[in-house]
């Protein structure tokens, strides 16, 4: 802990630093690889939409000895069309999801499950969801995402500045795209819990980015009058100052989410938790990355194109060169090596 606090102090004072802004091409390349992988996953596999989005029927059997194989065999014997999704819920329930069924097919599935597990038809929890309801949920989710991005952009533009809002939204879109791509690669079903997880990581990603941008605003408030650092150098210093805080906050957030994902969904078999926990876990990790490696470099790149910042960079460069020359002169004076006066030769005035 003392080593971490000592490192944080050195980063905050500028005694040591990581060049996040100068190496932005490297971070952009890493993000580009993840984005290409996400595009490939979405193109080849696509998202596995849950029953809430595409419609269908769900049958839940409460039987301690029920297995996934038994439930799948029983439903397949009825000859219902479409892909079957069979999940174990806890230790005593099995859920079977099918496509849209008519009344005859629905009754056939109920009878097959009741006969297979020796339970009554009335004890089977049956839910029928039409495709129109799923389309409505999808439309509302898209509207909610678009509205969220617009409101956040307006707030950041008023609270900070428009270019900070652009950089923050770019980082958020980066986070959502990579998270969706990994979700498609893993093959988990997209459920309303998944949408909740996506909206949650948007807020977390913005929170971490706003913390960094607030420090950037503090460091650049009078940057054009001091002319000691370029805008990119000031942004890099701000990222280093908030680096330890971002790492600690992200670690504390990832620990409980990881417990839900690996212990709750993996070991205990709470299948309903995996949709939410996977989206949160991936999103938190990607959001932390983007708030450090994506949003600040994008902001610096946008601001460095301004004439005032270009003039500032020239002044800082000129002052840096003058400082080097002054240091050489002062060092020579300390060592007793001043400018030499050549002795006059005879015959010359």
Helix count equals 14
Beginning-to-end CA distance, first to last residue: 73 Å
CATH architecture of the largest domain: Up-down Bundle
Question: Low-confidence runs (pLDDT<50, min 5 residues)?
Answer: 322-349
Order of helices and strands: HHEHEHEEHEHHEHHHHHHH
CATH topology of the largest domain: Multidrug efflux transporter AcrB transmembrane fold
* Chain-averaged pLDDT: 80
Number of strands: 6
The CATH H-level superfamily of the largest domain is Multidrug efflux transporter AcrB transmembrane domain
- The proportion of residues in beta strands is 5-15%
**Strand neighbour order, sheet with most strands:** 3-4-2-5
Query: How does the overall form come out from the CA principal axes?
Result: elongated
As a percent range, the share of helical residues equals 55-70%
Characterization of the model:
Helix 6 packs antiparallel against helix 7, helix 8 (192-219) crosses helix 10 (231-241) and helix 8 (192-219) packs parallel to helix 12 (271-293). The chain has 349 residues and is of the alpha+beta class. A hairpin with a 3-residue loop joins strand 3 and strand 4 (93-98). The chain is 70% helix and 8% strand. The chain has 2 domains: 2-49 and 133-303, Up-down Bundle (Multidrug efflux transporter AcrB transmembrane fold), CATH 1.20.1640; 56-129, Alpha-Beta Plaits, CATH 3.30.70.3400.
């Amino acid at each position: 802990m003392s080593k971490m606090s000592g490192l944080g102090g050195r980063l905050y004072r500028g005694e040591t630093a990581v060049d996040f802004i100068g190496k932005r091409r490297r971070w952009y390349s890493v993000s580009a690889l993840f984005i290409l992988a996400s595009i490939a996953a979405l193109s080849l596999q696509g998202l596995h939409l849950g029953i809430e989005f595409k419609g269908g029927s769900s049958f839940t059997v409460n039987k301690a000895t029920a297995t996934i194989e038994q439930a799948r065999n029983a439903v397949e014997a009825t000859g219902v069309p479409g892909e079957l999704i069979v999940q174990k819920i806890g230790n005593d329930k099995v859920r079977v999801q099918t496509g849209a069924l008519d009344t005859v097919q629905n009754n056939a599935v109920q009878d097959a499950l009741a006969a297979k597990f020796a339970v009554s038809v009335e004890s089977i929890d049956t839910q029928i969801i039409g495709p129109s309801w799923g389309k409505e949920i999808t439309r509302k989710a898209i509207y909610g995402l678009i509205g969220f991005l617009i409101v956040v952009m307006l707030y950041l533009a008023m609270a900070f500045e428009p270019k900070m809002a652009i950089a923050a939204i770019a980082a958020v879109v980066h986070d959502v795209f990579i998270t969706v791509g990994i979700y498609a690669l893993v093959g988990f079903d997209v459920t309303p819990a998944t949408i909740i997880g996506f909206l949650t990581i948007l807020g977390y990603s913005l929170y971490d980015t706003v913390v960094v941008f607030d420090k950037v605003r503090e460091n650049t408030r009078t940057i054009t009058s001091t002319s000691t650092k370029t805008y990119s150098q000031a942004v890099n210093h701000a990222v280093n100052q908030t680096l330890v805080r971002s790492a600690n906050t992200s670690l504390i957030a990832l620990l409980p989410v990881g417990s839900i994902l690996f212990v709750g969904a993996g070991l205990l078999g709470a299948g309903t938790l995996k949709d939410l926990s996977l989206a949160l876990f991936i999103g938190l990790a990607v959001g932390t990355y983007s708030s450090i490696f994506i949003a600040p470099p994008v902001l610096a790149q946008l601001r460095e194109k301004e004439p005032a910042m270009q003039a500032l960079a020239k002044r800082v460069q000129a002052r840096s060169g003058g400082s080097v020359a002054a240091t050489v002169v002062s060092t020579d004076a300390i060592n007793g090596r001043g400018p030499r006066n050549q002795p006059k030769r005879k015959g010359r005035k």
